Structures are given as C-alpha cells and as structure tokens.
C-alpha cells in the first residue's frame, strides 16, 4: 500500500508560498498583528496551507500560546435541540477568528455543572433554564455567552422576543376570524425556561385584552400523546385554532388530528414556535414563529470574542425579534361545521 502523504509542515508551506517559516507561523497562528505582512503575502500563505491540506496541532498551539483556541458548546440533547442555524452562526464568526468548536453534551443528571475535562477559551451555553445551572462556568471564570437562556453575572445573553412572537401568532389567527384560540403549553426537558413564562403570559394577556377568555389548559403541560387534549379542546370546547409552544408538540398534534379524523386547517388552525426540520415539509406545512437562531449565534459569538479579549467589559443582553412565517396550517375559521362543541364554532 502507498504511504499516506506526510502532514504539511511550516517549512513546506513556506517553500510553496515563497516566504520564511516565521512568516508562515505568524499568519497561521494569527500572530501577524503588528507585523508588516502584506495582504497578498498573507493570502499566499493561506492558499499554500490549504493546497497542502495543513492541519494545525491545536495541542501544541495551546502549550505555546497558553490558549486552547477551543470554544465549548454546552447543551442538552445535541443535536436534537440545537438548531442548525446556531452552528452556522457560530462557525461564521469563530472559524475566521481561528477558534475551534467543541460540542460537549451535558448529562441530564448534572445539567451544566460538569465541564469538559479539557481547557476552554470560552463557552456557548444553549437553553439554560436558570443561572444556577451555569454556576460551574461562572466559578471557573470561563468567558461565556448564553443563547436562548439565562446567564449569571459574568455571562452575556442573547434572547428571543417570545411575547412579541405570541402576539404575532394571535394577531394572525384573529385576522382570520378565530376567537376560540387555545395554547398548548410546555412541560418537558426545559420546563421553567424563560420562554415558557413569556409565551404563556403573553397568550393570557392578549386574550384578555381582546375580550376573550383564555381556553382551559393553557397553563398546564400538554400531555403526551395529546389525543385527549385535542378531543377536549377542539371537539368539546370548540377551539378553532391552537398555538403550540414547540414544533415537536405541533407534530404530535398533527398526528393526533389524523387519528381523530380532524383536518388542519379545516377543523382547526395550527401555529407553533421554531422553524426547524421537518415543519416545512409536513402536510400541511406548519405556520411558525421563526426564531433568528443564526443571527443570535453570530451576535453571541462576536460578544464572546469581545469577552475573551476584554473579560471585564460590561455585560450585554440582546433581544431579537421573531418572524411569523405563514404556511398551510392556518386558514379562516368556520371551514368545518361538523364538530360537536357545546358553544359551536365562533
């Protein structure tokens, strides 16, 4: 068998780029600040390194620079509960900065209290329910940013405007003629998350402001499976629309609707939060509140870079607006008159 190609050395890259090994080292290790490395020379080095399939030895770099150049992502249930946009947003910032992402899946029983056994230059925490969960990161003095969750006094925060998202959903349904609108509350792994309170309270407030009574069950977790909930809410109480906390719940409601011979949106309209797979490919495709996860991750990554360079800078908290994406799961009320509800369809 032929011998595998030997790894590219700084000397080989220097020969190909026509520069010194010291210049290659400064460019590849991002230590060219303050040195007169012309942009065209820097690009020549990067092109030569790529053509030779250069891969840095991050362990050796860590020992030389006293930095790991690793950012850890701390989350539960990766990859299921980590939106794809989050990874894209983080990589768009960290990759040009020469930082490497390391996904560390936190055991359920230990929440965020167990850190990786390797050194981190920074951390990205996703979906933290309470500041207590991130205390280990705080105690370790690791710069971090919290995406879609809580943080302690040392962490920056990027959140979504869940209350406004709920109002967008309800305004959309109201405009279609819906008045008996239910909310399918959450109660799973992230019970107690700030989005739970924001969406539930915004639902109750909006309904009351519009002279409508919140439908029974809005403040209790949606049962799994949701068949009995759907029968009680749509058939017995006459709900013509449901807003679901999570897209997983919406998928479950669609399946339950099929088992109950209910049609969406003919018998009830359905809206959910999160524009994640597979909501756009379902039949009907789900109307959603799209969370700007890629934008949030990119902003969070930039904040983390600033925190790494300036650990004592003031704490930042950013709230991003959600976007209503209308698809086939919502339609005008009154499409079906065949449901058995005491009050009829209103």
Describe it for me?
With 346 residues, this protein is of the alpha/beta class. It folds into three domains: 10-55, 434 Repressor (Amino-terminal Domain), CATH 1.10.260; 68-159 and 292-320, Response regulator (Rossmann fold); 162-290, Rossmann fold, CATH 3.40.50. The protein is built from eleven helices and eleven strands. Strand 3, helix 6 (135-140) and strand 4 form a beta-alpha-beta unit. Helix 1 packs across helix 2, helix 5 (84-94) runs parallel beside helix 11 (293-309) and helix 7 packs parallel to helix 8 (194-209). The longest helix is centred in the last third of the chain and has 17 residues, at 293-309.
Write a compact overview of the structure shown:
The protein has 346 residues and is an alpha/beta fold. Helix content is 36%, strand content 14%. The protein has eleven helices and eleven strands.
């Amino acid at each position: 068998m032929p011998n595998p190609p030997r790894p590219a050395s700084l000397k080989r890259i220097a020969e190909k780029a026509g520069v010194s090994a010291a210049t290659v080292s400064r460019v590849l290790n991002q230590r060219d600040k303050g040195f007169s490395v012309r942009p065209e020379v820097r690009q020549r080095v990067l092109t030569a390194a790529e053509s030779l399939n250069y891969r840095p030895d991050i362990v050796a770099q860590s020992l030389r620079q006293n930095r790991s150049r690793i950012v850890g992502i701390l989350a539960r249930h990766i990859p299921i509960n980590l939106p794809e946009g989050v990874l894209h947003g983080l990589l768009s910032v960290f990759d040009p900065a020469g930082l490497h992402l390391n996904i560390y899946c936190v055991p359920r029983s230990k929440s965020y209290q167990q850190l990786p056994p390797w050194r981190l230059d920074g951390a990205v925490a996703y979906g933290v329910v309470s500041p207590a969960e991130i205390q280990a990161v705080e105690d370790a003095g690791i710069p971090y940013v919290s995406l879609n969750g809580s943080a302690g006094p040392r962490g920056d925060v990027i959140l979504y405007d869940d209350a406004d998202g709920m109002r967008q959903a309800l305004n959309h349904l109201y405009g279609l003629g819906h008045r008996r609108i239910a909310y399918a509350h959450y109660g799973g792994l992230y019970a107690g998350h700030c989005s739970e309170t924001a969406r539930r309270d915004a639902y109750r407030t909006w309904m009351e402001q519009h002279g409508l009574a919140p439908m029974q069950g809005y403040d209790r977790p949606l049962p799994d499976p949701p068949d009995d909930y759907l029968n009680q809410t749509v058939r017995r109480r006459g709900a013509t629309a449901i807003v679901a906390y999570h897209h997983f719940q919406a998928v479950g409601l669609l399946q339950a609707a099929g088992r109950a011979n209910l049609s969406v949106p003919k018998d009830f309209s359905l809206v959910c939060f999160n524009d994640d797979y597979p909501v756009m490919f379902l039949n009907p495709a789900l109307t959603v509140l799209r969370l700007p996860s890629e934008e949030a991750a990119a902003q969070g990554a930039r904040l983390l870079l600033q925190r790494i360079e300036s650990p004592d800078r003031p704490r930042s908290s950013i709230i991003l607006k959600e976007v209503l994406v209308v698809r086939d799961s919502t339609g005008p009320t009154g499409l079906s008159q065949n449901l058995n509800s005491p009050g009829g369809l209103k």
